[in-house]
Write a structure and sequence with these properties.
This protein has 411 residues and is an alpha+beta fold. It is built from twelve helices and 13 strands. Strands 3, 4, 5, 7, 8, 9 and 10 form a seven-stranded mixed β-sheet that branches. It has a four-stranded antiparallel β-sheet with strand order 2-12-1-13. A hairpin with a 2-residue loop joins strand 8 and strand 9. Helix 2 crosses helix 11 and helix 3 runs antiparallel to helix 7. The two termini are 25 Å apart.
Length: 411
Amino acid sequence: MEIRPILSTLRRHKTAAALIVVEIALTCAIICNALFIVGQRWEALRETSGVDEQQLVTVSLSGVGPQTDVDALTQQDLGALRAIPGVASVALVNQLPFRRGSNNSSLATQPDQKIPTLSAAFYTGAEGTLKTLGLRLAAGRDFAADEYMDWSELMKQVDGNNGVPLRTMPLIVSREAANKLFPGESAVGHKVYMANVPMLIVGVVERLRRPNTVNGDTGYSMLIPVRTPYENGGLYVLRVRDPAQRAPILRQAVAALERVASNRLIMDSKTYEEWRSDYMSKDRDMMGLLLALCALLLLVTALGIIGLASFWVAQRTRQIGVRRALGATKGQILRYFQTENFLLVTLGIVLGMGLAYALNQLLMRHYELPRLPLWYLPVGALLLWALGQLAVLWPARRAAAVPPAIATRSA
């Protein structure tokens, strides 16, 4: 195919050619970044929490009016929940993965370290937390029975000893936190410091996701053996033997807690799957919105290519007729318009790649989005090349189908 006549024709229609190139460039920039964001959200939807999500239900409640002896009442709640048929185990935690808010604290490897080594999600858990949540130990051990204490007791020790408990607190950390604290060696047996509080790492779990994302991190977390009372953010977690029985067991759990003390409000009761679904709802909505935007942009771009190609076919009827009369085949006419479209789309893609990079830099600056991987650019280019060829096919076939005599007579 001779390129020079095509370039000569495009130079005579600079404005129309420039407009379609700009449209393709903008589409390329937006499509690449939109698909990248959709990919990020898709990865987030598939992210594991480290807990056994299929078998968990949760209940949280709050007292009405002044509450007395909440630690004893919390123990009554735990006993009532464990007595429900079909419940394998029960735990009391302060938070769970996939929540909007989270408790976090910093850990350092030295007592006088000015800048902590990492910031991690701060979980508290009563007896049986690892078993109930389905957390898997990668190294070390679970907490011993005599290492658990009530939150109120911990606060008394801290208040009476300049902010430091009377004993070194045992600690279980996630594998990612352990690798960050002590890279290349086992973290078990090492002391770390939460401000001036010494803590001894006794175990490492494979995975315990943060409740939410902090500075792009989801893997740094730690767990201490403290019973948080129900009125201070304590969350009851029940592990059921049969996932199909989650709904009826959840109803029984609510009824059991109301029987223990009726002057309380059930703040929340749901399966863990519902927790996760609620947390991910915004990501799903954003994915749907961006995919719809991509589809709309591609449709508008395709219509623009079809409209421009149709206009040029109508405008060049005489030229087509002359070429057909001189022996040009239908295939040559078809390839002429396809090549012309390919050149325009290629120019738009080249400009679009630069715009895509600039747009990604802007998003990184304002929305903490990671850098756009370079492989998204050829993916966007292939998509637009295919779209351009499909869009121009109908007007090009219409041009190739015009008989030479009719084309010449209509000019």
